[in-house]
Amino acid sequence: MTTARFRLVVTGVLAVLLVAAPLWGQVRQEIRIPEILGYKTLKCDFHMHTVFSDGQVWPTVRVDEAWREGLDVISITDHIEYQPHKDDVPTNHNRPYEIALPRAKARGILLVRGAEITRETPPGHFNAIFLDDVTPLDTKDLLDCMAAAAKQGAFIFWNHPGWKPDKKGWFDTHTTLYEKKYMRGIEMVNGKSYYPDAHKWAIEKDLVFIGNSDIHGPSMIQRTTKNEHRTMTLVFAKRKSLAAVKEAVFAGRTVAWYQNQLIGPAEYLEAIFEAAVSLTDIQYGPENTIRFRLTNSSDLDLELARTGKVGPRTLALPAGASALVSIKVDDLEAPVELEYTVENFLSGLGRGVPVSLSFAGQMTIELDAEI
What we know:
The chain is an alpha+beta fold. It contains 8 helices and 18 strands.
């Protein structure tokens, strides 16, 4: 009797281990990009697919991948109109969200309900996120679909505007969507593709900067690095909550991270630089030389080009590393200001963000000989 009971207990423990193994076997890699301006920097991907449209994985897999790669917020945005697996996976537009939500809560990932509105190009595809219910968007007329999303308070952005080069452009339909305030953002980066026209339109029309993976197959990324990472949107939110993320996105507090480039409004790029880079260990030497250390605490390589008169012509600050810098000045006691452009922080087309590094001059103390 005792032996039988012991076997039952062991069997139960093994069952729990087998279920939990996928969770325990993975390691999350935190992405070091600093918090700025009193906001939390949340790593977000608002465009991904599962077997419920044309993706190749189950919704919970998307959660596990995002957790492993250091993301904080995701949205599964399966196509509404395109269901290639419908013979095997019944069409249920809300089901991916419902399946993924328990796993997301367990992982500490914020899951945003979303969907992809799929039309021929032009006008193309659009994502609606922060939805309450996807089903009302399943309509033939595009404006009716957009109105249904807007009625729910959704944030709508234009996906991969240049993915069909022979049909790219800003058309009358886009003007209508823009003027009705349905389309509020634009995906200037989609996966490994950057769209300069989208970048230009974002600036000209004050559209929110968005970058996403648009992942369909399984993620092959095992370790996030400065060059090997999923394309994502950095959102600067008051706190880590769905309401705060929604408020931040509508307010346009976003930057796209693509390869080793950040693309977005200058004020956020400047703030990231200032929070990531520190200047320490200042030493004053002979012949008016000054040596100091620059430390980059972020997971971004920083590529600087001099715009002022002082300092090396170029500076490379590797991710998570320090660089020793030596400069020559006219007066050691005068304040020093180094003026540079961060060339891989793009606030405009081909335009880096200007930054400055400054410190006070050498202090001298005169002692009274009579003391």
